[in-house]
Amino acid sequence: MDLRRLVARTPGLRRCRPLRLPMLVAAAAGASGSAAGQTPPAADSPASSSSSNASTATAQPLEAITVTGTRRREPVRDVPVQLNTIPADQLEQSGAKTLTDYAATQPGVNVDTSGGPGLGAVSIRGVNAGSTTIATVGMYVDDVPFGSSTAYAVGSGTALDMGLLDLNRVEVLRGPQGTIYGASTMGGLIKYVTNEPDTLRFSGNATIAGSTTAHGSPSSTLNAVINVPIQDEVAVRFAAFQDHAGGFVDAVGPSSGSDVNTGNTVGGRVSLLARPSHDFQIKLTATTQEIRRDSKDAVDYTADGQAVNGDLVKKLAIREPYSIKTGVVGLELDYDMGWARLDSITSGQRTDVSNRTDATYVYGPLLASIGLPVDQVPLDNNVTVSRQTQELRLTSPRGKWEWIAGYFYSHEKGTNDQLVTSRISEGVPGPMLATFQLPSEYTENALFGDITWNPSKQLSLTGGIRTSNNKQDFQQIGDGPLAGGPSSVNGHSSETTNTYLAAARYALTPTSNVYARAASGFRPGGPNAVAKDPNTGEPTAPPTFKSDSLWSYEAGYKAELMDRRLSVDAAIYTIKWKDLQQIAAVNGIGVIVNAGDAKVDGAELSLRYRPSPPWTLYASYAYTDGKLTEDAPGLGSSGARLPNAAKNAANAGAEYDFEAGGYKFQAGADVRYVGERNAGFEGSSTLPNYKLPDYTLVDLHAVGDFRWGQVTLYARNVFDKRAQLGAGTNFIPLGGYAQVTPAQPRTVGVSVSATF
Q: Would you state the pLDDT for residue 19?
């Protein structure tokens, strides 16, 4: 057998997703307290609730939370869409460090991690058909969009995983946000909201933390924030952190070792705020972060869910290190002209990803069968994304008629270099098997706006539209025996897409509302790099794929009841998704196509109750039923479940505040349940299935507030459960195993912070 016959046996050749699907080619086959101008942590967050007066005779009300996710500062209760906020203090006190941890208490929000921090694909409300094309959830830092908009720079599998670098809160918007936030927000949006500089006082915070993990090595965290007023209306804020993650996965084989997935995350932010006048504000922010791991978290599992090499053990011929370096600079100008507020947001960002996958135990036997024995087959992938954006937005003042109008521009260049090499034995290199270069370019121009009519104090009606045009160029340059020899093909596309919004809200009482909402969303289409038939001159496969789109229909109820001691947030929805983007083989060539429809029906309920001054109770539940409603040849048949979404997920917890020795304390417990999920589709060679079992995890925390700062004790995964958070399945058709990412084993930690 020769190498070309081996290529024919390799599913997905010329279109693998390099970071997650290790085939051969990408894409187919705080300082404590609130800062000036920022919303403080909600009174029901641990930091503020632990400061509540426990001697009060009656229960205190839950404080209304103000958010900015709708591009207006308004109470969550008045927003006609499901929107949740997670205060940074709450995350810090629970020991949360990664995006997977942040989303853990949000039923219906899933981070399908493929080996560690930074290698995650986010889905909300089950809007997920696999992470081989374009992301369905948008990521923002304040008002700056982050990530790639194309199918060729692995943006769908590298969602921004920001450390707790002077964050104020994380906002989670459900449902399509296409009219205001644009492309790739069809599932929703995650927004990191940072603390602004305080122009009134000099202040700072320093934190040192340490933890120990069962079956693993110790971890530690250092961070510091300092806020410096320069003059009356000018201030600068500096933040820096370093997090060392002790590993917990051991390796056997030629590259054996203990806790091989150890690593570090470092980052920093500088933010300058100036108010030249009472109606004009300038904010300049620069953020950098780098995640490095010596090897991935993933462990080999058989199709029936058994660990191949033992508990938290993986067989490695070579280590699988990766690094993700991100830099974001944003300039925000805010000018209140009286009749409208003008916002200008200018940003630049760069992402550099370097990733290695050990494919020895999959491709080694196949190469040996054609007389090429090797003892190492590394797949190296290097991706860069450089993106610049500009947004201009006008926002009317409050009144009977309210409106938003704006323009958005984005330009992005990406590179995606892949190299498949081999080694026959130590000191004896094997042949270079394949090399690919996938440069891409994306340009988008969009106009958007919405208008709200408030005919009475009770009723508001909103309509919105966004029209956007994107142009893309893509090139695939390949060489090597597994690439079929040298080749170079180009692709180009241009597409105009519209999204719409209609919403109505009615106030039943001053503290309760009902709403109905219909909204659309989309992911951009793009080019395929395909050659032309030498005889006919026609493309041998579709030269482009178009955008896929969905409509979401939602009704909800939001209320603060019982003297605002009980908050209720409930919604039911149905989502109709058509023309799903997917990888399929056309004339033996792997390309992105549109085929098949899907539907998601769901319901969500969130409760928070303060029955007496010391106690706060909370619970939330999400029901998500997503299925294909039409055959999708690259994925599965009608009726197949959509991947990485549990039909049932829930979270519940309690917090108790008390005083001792003149100091204030809080103790809390949290339990979360996630039901069974599919990692892929049954019978699919593009996204093979692996059943992720359901799991229940319990966390504990205790907080003490002192005059000089705060001490926190926490325990995550108290009962040391082997929850499976995600699985990569592309090795399965080649006789390999599912690459399962387990939850971090039981971790107990302490954090000490001092403020001034």
A: 34
Given the DSSP bridges, would you call strands 378-395 and 234-245 parallel, antiparallel or unpaired?
A: unpaired
- Residue 622 is predicted with a pLDDT of 97
Cα 551 to Cα 514: distance, rounded to the nearest angstrom: 20
Beta bridge pairs of residue 32: none
Residue 503 has pLDDT above 70, yes or no: yes
Q: How far apart are CA 50 and CA 34, in angstroms?
A: 16
Contact residues for 111 (Cβ-Cβ < 8 A; gap 6+): 99, 100, 103, 120, 121, 122, 159, 725, 726
38: closest CA among 70, 68, 5, 7? Answer: 68
Angle at CA of residue 601, ends 599 and 604, nearest 5°: 145
**Among candidates 130, 134, 16, 19, which has minimal Cα distance to 585?**
16
Which residue type does 472 have?
Answer: Q
For residue 143, report the phi and psi dihedrals to the nearest 5 degrees.
-100, 15
Beta bridge partners of 428: 425
Length of the chain: 756
For residue 653, which of 673, 634, 675, 679 has the smallest C-alpha distance? Answer: 673
How far is residue 532 from each of residues 475, 543, 587, 594, measured CA to CA in Å?
A: 14, 10, 12, 20
Cα torsion through 389, 390, 396, 401, rounded to 10: -60
Residue 49 has pLDDT above 50, yes or no: no
Percent of the chain beyond pLDDT 90?
A: 75
Provide the whole-model pTM.
0.90
With CA atoms as reference, report the closest residue to 727 among 682, 697, 685, 693. 693
> What one-character-per-residue DSSP string does 646-710 give?
-SEEEEEEEEEEEEETTEEEEEEEEEEEE--EESSBTT-SSSB--EEPPEEEEEEEEEEEETTEE
